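[Automated response] Your request has been received and processed.

Submitted sequence:
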Amino acid sequence: EMIGSKFDEHKMREHRKFFRAIEKRVPYKIGDFEVEWMHITHSIIDSSALAIKTDAGTIIHTGDFKIDHTPIDGFPTDLHRLAYHGEQGVLLLLSDSTNSHSAGFTKSEKTVGPTFDSLFARSKGRVIMSTFSSNIHRVSQAIEYGLKYGRKVCVIGRSMEKNLELAMRLGYIKFPKDQFIEAHEVHKYEDKEILIVTTGSQGEAMSALYRMSIHEHRHIKIKEGDQIILSARAIPGNESSVSTIINHLLKAGAKVAYQDFSEIHVSGHAAQEEQKLMLRLIKPKFFLPVHGEYNHALKHSQTAIDCGVLERNIYVMSDGEQIEVTPKYLKKVKTVKTGKVYIDNQLNHKISDDVVIDRQT
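Generated structure:
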């Protein structure tokens, strides 16, 4: 449904006819492949890893994952099913490399709760929490503690509103609807009675939080006494934008909880010990580290070697490389052009790099 809402947003509703709901642990025939979805934990609810059976052998793709033994929804990573495929024999594993440099285990999503509890308990003014709109469990924890301390909940930001509405409608989270208010109703309550959950944790210039911070939001303007909780790490490349919005918030008189609180955010990606557990459960012949920058993949490949995968059976890919895998070998076959595709909104077609350069100059 979250994917479907994105299709609707970008006027691609007609493609919804190709959507098909799946049941986990059930194999589906798709062309020449047999594909099975297996539950894994991540910052996005109801995530899955894939087991893809081919004539050459079984391929496992973890997708983005962590191994959270105490997830908010009570559904941990399906280690039993992953282990089953490992025992049956896996030709190739593609696994999340994002946190390859992080030792130990990624902390459980539940560890954020006590930090929220502490911040809510001592805040005398409004509490404004911002995170990724897809991180429904983080949002639900903020709402839980807001209600605990007698606050009405105001959700601001189109993606945040849409995802929360979907999660509640589908039963992933449950809160009384009469505890939610609209942005234009916030002024009717005392500051200590308000929790605002919003988008903008990455400092996006048009996000709700950014507009609040520079007093351009229609209903909410940051003021002295507000407690801001930025419950997300800056995505690489967004550090400057995050720093800018923090400065705006501080200048407006707010208190900002960000990286100075160690458990105000936890990652949705596996650290080294979880990567090792995945490798040891799957026991692949070949290994492709995916998702992350080149240095993350390189570090993950070393972890795989430490777990018994032969170095010659590991390939660290670059964007655009196509890989061929058989029971006997894993090799690059060719490289295709990758990069940004520019679209002219008025003409609705692709434009070349040369045209982009001309327009920039």
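Summary generated for your ticket: The radius of gyration is 23 Å. The chain has a mean pLDDT of 93.
If you did not submit this request, please reply to this message.
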